[in-house]
Queue: 3 jobs
Job 1
Amino acid sequence: MKKYWSELAKTLRPYEPGEQPQDREYLKLNTNENPFPPSGLVLDRIKESVSDSLRLYPDPNSNKLKGVIANYYKIEKENVFVGNGSDEVLAFSFLAFFENRTAISFPEITYSFYPVYCNIFQIEYRTFRLDYDFSIDIDEIYVNSGGIIFPNPNAPTGIYLEISEIEVILTRFPEIVVVIDEAYIDFGGVSCIELTKTYQNLLVVQTFSKSRSLAGLRVGFAIGHTSLIQALNTVKNSFNSYPLDSIATDGAIAAIEDKDYFSHCCRQIVESREFLMEELILLSFMVLPSKANFLFIKHEKMDAFMLFSKLKENGILVRHFRQPVVNEFLRVTVGKKEEMILLVKCIKLIFEAHHV
C-alpha cells in the first residue's frame, strides 16, 4: 500500500544489486567482491577497535584516515573527502555539483546507480553512445553538459580509458565538474589522482570495497581541489556528520598501511583474470578487454540468460543485465584461480549437455 508514500517515492526505480540468495552455498561471482580476506593487520586493528571507546562518537572529519590517504597518494589532507562507501560519496557528489544544472552526461552503458541518483535528486541527464567495441568515445559527450561522470574502468564492461583521453575531457570542459569513478582502478589501470593537482574541475572517487577486501566496512573517498572537497563536506554535514564509524576508520587505515598484502591480492586477481580470459576465448566466448576484477562475456551459440540460469543451478552466481544492448552478456567476477577453474569446468559441462 502506497497511501503514505510521497510522490517522489512512488516514482523511484531503485538500484538493483547482485542477488544474494540464501537457499544454498554459492560460488559468488556476481558482486565483484574480492576473493581474498582482509589483511591480518586489518583484522587485528579492528579487534583493537572493539573496546569501551565505542560509547564515544567517532571523529566527524575522519582526520586520521584522511591523513593516511593523503600521505599514500602524496597530496594534502585538505584534498581528501571520506564517506560511507563510494556510493555515498557519489551521491554527495551529485548533490554538490550537478543539482539544478544543465543535463549531465554519462555513458549509455555504465554503473546503473547514476540514473537512480538523477531520479532521486531530480537531475536531468543525457547518455552518450559507446563505440562499436564498447569503449568510451569522448567525442560523443554532450557538448553542453552540466557535468560528466563515468567509471574508469567502466562498469559493467571493464574497459579502461587512458589518462590522456581523460585530460582531453578536462581541458574541453573546464567549467563543469568531471567525476571519475575509480572503483576498479587498482586491477590494472592508472589513477587520475595526479591530474587533480592540475585540474580544479576533476574529482576522483575510489573505494575500499574491491581491491582492499573491505566491502563489509563501507569506506569510500574522493580526491580533488579544496573547493570541491569543501562542497562535499557541506553536503555531508547537512546530512550526516558521522558517516564513518571508528571501526571502519581503523580498518581502512590498516588496509592502506599493509601495502604488501594489497599488492599481492591485486596481482593474484590480475593473473586469475588473464587465465579466465584465455580459457573463455578457447570456448569461443567474446570477452571484452578488462582492467577490472571482472570480465564481460558473450557467447554466440548460447543465450546469456540460459547460461546464467544453468550456472546458478550448479551453484555459481554471475550477473546478467536485462537492458538492451548488453542483455546477451554476462559479467563474471574474477575469483581465485581454483574458482576460475571450477567455473570453466562447469561451463564446459553445460555446453556438452546443450551440444554447444
Job 2
Amino acid sequence: MTLVRARCCAVTGRTRVVNSIRGMLKPYGYRIPKSATSTLVTYLSENVDREILRLIAPLAELLETFDEQIAHYDREAKVLLPKLAPEAVRMCDIPGVGPISALYFAALIGNPQRFEKARDVGAYLGLCRRRNDSGDYKSELRITKAGDRYMRALLVNCAAHIIGPFGKDSDLRTWGLKRMGGGTKVEKRKAKVALARKLSVIMLTLWKTGQKYDRFHRPQDVAKAA
C-alpha cells in the first residue's frame, strides 16, 4: 500500500509540474498539447522562446525525474504482486487492470474469503449509491465514498481505459459503453463509476475462485455448442 501511495505522490507531482508549465506559458500564447513527457520536452525545445525556455528548463528536467521514479514503482509492483498474493496475479488478465491496481487491491482486501458475496466489495470500497427511498420513490444519490479513495481512483482509471479509445473489445467494454447512453459528461462519469464497481466484483471473484478471465463470457451450453 505504501508503494502504490508513493507512486500516486509522484504522479501527482508530475501533474502539478505540467499544469504549472501550462499556466506560465499561456500568457505568451503557447498552447501545450496533452502528451507524454518526452513529447512535451521536445515541444518546449522546438517552439518556446529561448529566454523563456531557459527559465522553465529545470521544471522539464524534473518531469523526466518523475517519469523515471514512476517507472521504478511500476517495476517494483510487478515483482511484489506475485510474492504478496500469487492468486491475485490473474487479475492483470483483465484489459485495463495493471500490476499497480491489482497490488493495491490485494493489499487492501487482504483475505478475499472475508467477503461471503463478491458483490459486497463494491459497498466496501464506497462505490455503491446511497439509498433514501420512500414508498414508490426511488432516490438517485451519489456514491457513499466510504472506502479507500486511492482504490476508487485506481478502479475508475481502469474503467476509463476500458471504455476509452484504446480499450480492448470485451464484455466489460460493451457493458460500459451501453451505460454511457448519450455520451454526455455526466453519463460518462456515471458509467465509469458503475464499471469500476463491476470491475471490483470481477477482480474479487477471480481471486477467490481461481478462474481464468474470459473477455467474452459465454454460458457453458453456448460455449459447448460453439
Job 3
Amino acid sequence: MMKNQILFLIFCFSLFFYGCKKQVDKFKPDFSSPIKYNNYNLVWNDEFNDSGSPDALKWDYEHGFVRNKELQWYQKDNANCKEGVLLIEAKREVIKNNLYDSTSTNWRRNREFADYSSSCLITKEKHSWKYGRFEIRARIDSTKGSWPAIWTLGEHGKWPNNGEIDLMEFYIKNGSQSILANAATGGEEQYSIKWDSEVIPLNYFLKKDSKWVEQFHIWRMDWHEEEIKLFLDNELLNTISIDDEVNREGVVPFKQKHYLLLNLAIGSNGGNPLNSNFPITYEIDYVRIYQKTN
C-alpha cells in the first residue's frame, strides 16, 4: 500500500509541475534565463533586454554598400534594442553615397544614392568562437525584398576560403521564398564557391502553421570537430561533414574561430522591394553561445 501511495504522490507532483510550467509564447520575446545544457557552459550571450543601442562591447557594424549588389545602405542607426528584442529596421530613404565616383566601374562607388537603409551587426575583432552550440531566437519578415540572415565567417583568409556558415538565410530560391541552411568555402577554381546547402520552401512551414511568419523561432547550430548540424525549432535541416569542406588552399576553414553576423539585406536574392511596405523588420530575441565543458 505504501508503495502505491508514493507512486500516486509522484504522479500528482508531475501533473502539478508540468501544468504550472510556463510555456513560451511564440509571438512574444522570451525573458526567461538561458537554458542550462549538460556538458555545456554558456560562454557568451546577448538578451537585448536593455533599451537603446546594442552593447558596443559586443557588437560593431558594417557601413555603406557591402556585398551582393544589394540595395540597402548599412548604418548603425537602424539597429536598436526595444521591448526585449534587437530590432533591425530596413527603411525606404535616400542616402548620399560618400564614396560616389561617376567614373568608377565598382557598384559600391558608381551608385550616387542608396534608396534603402538597414543594419548589419558583427562581432568581428570583438568576439569569435571555435565550435559550440549557437542558439538564436528570431522573427523574420516575409515582405518581398527581405533578406535576413544569421551567419558566421572565419577569422583568417579571404571569402570564401575563410568559410561561411549560414544558420539562417531567407530569400527567393528556385522561384519560392525559402529558408536556407548552408556552409560554403572556396572551390577548386579561383573565385569559385563550394556550397553545402539545404533549401526549404517557406510553404513547408506555413502548411504546419499558417501563422509561422508571425512567430519567433529558434535557429541552432551544433558545431563540433567532425560536423556542423543546423536546426530550426529542433528540426535538423542540414548536416555538414567538416573534413569534406577543404578549400582550394588545402585548408578546412571550419576548424578555426568564426565571428557572428546578424543582418537584414534588401533586394538582390530577396526580390524587388519597389512595391513593398516599409519598414521591413527583423527581430532577434537573444543570441546564446555554449561550448563544451572540456
